[in-house]
Amino acid sequence: MHQQVVIAGGGPVGLITALGLAKQGVDVVVLERHPHVIQEPRAMTYHWAVLDGLAKLGILQDMETEGFRLHEMCYRVYHTGEIIKLDISAVDDITAYPYAVVLGQDQISSIVLRHLENYPNAQIRWNTEVQRVEDHGDKAVVHVSTPNGNEQLTGDWIIGADGAKSRTRQAAGVELEGFTWPEQFVATNIQCDLEAFGWDDCNYLVDPEYGAVIAKITRDGLWRVTFSEPAGSTEQDLEDRIWDYYRQVFPNINDIELKLYSSYQMHQRVASSMRVGRILLAGDAAHLTNPTNGFGLVSGMMDALTLSQTLSAVIHGKASDEILDQYSDERRRVFNEVATPSSTETKRLVFHSEDSDRLEKDLQRLRNLTRSRKERAKQLSIGQQLLTPGQTNSSSSPKIYQPREGIVARNLRHNTLRCARELSSWRVFSNCCSFRLAMSQTLS
Ligand SMILES: Cc1cc2nc3c(=O)[nH]c(=O)nc-3n(C[C@H](O)[C@H](O)[C@H](O)COP(=O)(O)OP(=O)(O)OC[C@H]3O[C@@H](n4cnc5c(N)ncnc54)[C@H](O)[C@@H]3O)c2cc1C
């Protein structure tokens, strides 16, 4: 069986990439080792900066129908009880979507699968595990195991969207550069009416011992509580430790039903390249961040939106395959320069606020943000820098990525210039410009 594109991994990034490609007439097959979409307590909040791309892909409306809009983030200091709320709508000058969207990543996958049913050029093969990938120069070969035996598929291009332990990445000989955090996160889903006890929809509980992200997942009382544990914590007695934690943080709440939990190691890592010959990487296969900011899947979605545009341009002869090297350079750059530093900073504030002077400075900065809409907009626009300059939408008539007429051109210019100024780096500046130019020339 030969396909234009074979995608290893039917997680949210693999599926979104498939939808972007299918919409542009590319033949694509997704290989997923599980028999269905997997359910784990993972991503649930999607930054406003990615919503325009998802709207153009045609899935935002369904996401908002099944999930809900988040308009505010709330910082709570555990020991003093201070509450600082940041209103996200401050970015309404720069986007038509001045809010985050909340829903489980498994629901996003299910929505994308429904949309993929409209495209006969897209196939999903469940129970199909990628064992090995080989680049033969003129084509790539994927060896899979299925319940009916082993098979080989060939493709013009292989996309590894097969998560943190990506076999595709390993086959391409690509290193995951960076480090692993010593502590681990415990993510739990609970059924409980935390709203009735005064909790906001999205809370950062700031404390060196009991720091947590506590956020509503569904309108009918499912909540996520994610807290941190020291290095070396074992799976044994994890459930007991979870209940100890709830007793400390929710002392007056008895009616908690623990639905799902999992512990995760956290990393700040990025692939040394997201393109090797005919093999491309996206999502967690390419980069990993601690999830405090919710930038993991958001970055992966931005990879998916950019990659489906650039790769279909190459396949349709509108761009040379060099644009895929630029995809790799740009996505790695924004991950290293935006996702990692800002996620690390938020993790420090929420989970490691031991230094009281520094905490007071952090809190003062947050208090100031509540008073200045302009400063708040500046702070909240960090996620926009995760976008690749020149990122295009996934509609059938590709144009420069454009959340609202005139705004993006201004923002891109502004971001590109600021980026060049702040980093004093002509290389970054010229890469941004050439990628943007290449994208606009080939796709318009
Ligand atoms: C506690 C927690 C909270 C998070 N919260 C957020 C958040 O709010 N916002 C956000 O943006 N991000 C968040 N993230 C990060 C987010 O979950 C990941 O970035 C996201 O899952 C990446 O999607 P993916 O499709 O790249 O990889 P995955 O979701 O890991 O999907 C990979 C898929 O590939 C399949 N696969 C793997 N190997 C093979 C193989 N050999 N053959 C075939 N199939 C294979 C897997 O079964 C899986 O379906 C959070 C993460 C955690 C742990």
Task: Describe the protein.
By secondary structure, this protein is an alpha+beta fold. The chain is built from 12 helices and 19 strands. A hairpin with a 5-residue loop joins strand 5 and strand 6. Helix 8 (322-351) packs across helix 12, helix 9 (356-371) crosses helix 10 and helix 11 packs antiparallel against helix 12. The longest helix has 30 residues, at 322-351. It binds flavin-adenine dinucleotide. Flavin-adenine dinucleotide binds at residues 8-14, 31-34, 38, 41-45, 105, 129-130, 161-163, 167, 185, 187, 226, 264, 283-284, 291, 294-298, 300.
Summed up, what is this model?
Helix content is 37%, strand content 26%. With 444 residues, it is an alpha+beta fold. The longest helix is centred in the last third of the chain and has 30 residues, at 322-351.
Distance between the termini: 33 Å
Quaternary: single chain
Tell me the major beta sheet: 8 strands, mixed
Relative helix content: 25-40%
Radius of gyration: 22 Å
Strand content: 25-35%
* Integer average pLDDT: 89
Which word captures the global form?
globular
Please, how many helices?
A: 12
The count of β-strands is: 19
Low-confidence stretches: 392-433
Structural class based on helices, strands and sheet pairing: alpha+beta
Bound molecules: flavin-adenine dinucleotide
Record keyword descriptors for this entry.
444 residues; alpha+beta; 8-stranded mixed beta sheet; 12 helices; 37% helix; 26% strand; globular; binds flavin-adenine dinucleotide
SSE map:
Elements: E1 2-8, H1 12-23, E2 28-31, E3 45-46, H2 51-57, H3 60-66, E4 68-70, E5 72-77, E6 83-87, E7 100-102, H4 105-116, E8 122-125, E9 129-135, E10 140-146, E11 149-160, H5 167-171, E12 176-191, E13 202-206, E14 212-216, E15 222-229, H6 238-249, E16 257-271, E17 275-276, E18 279-281, E19 287-288, H7 296-315, H8 322-351, H9 356-371, H10 373-380, H11 407-423, H12 426-443
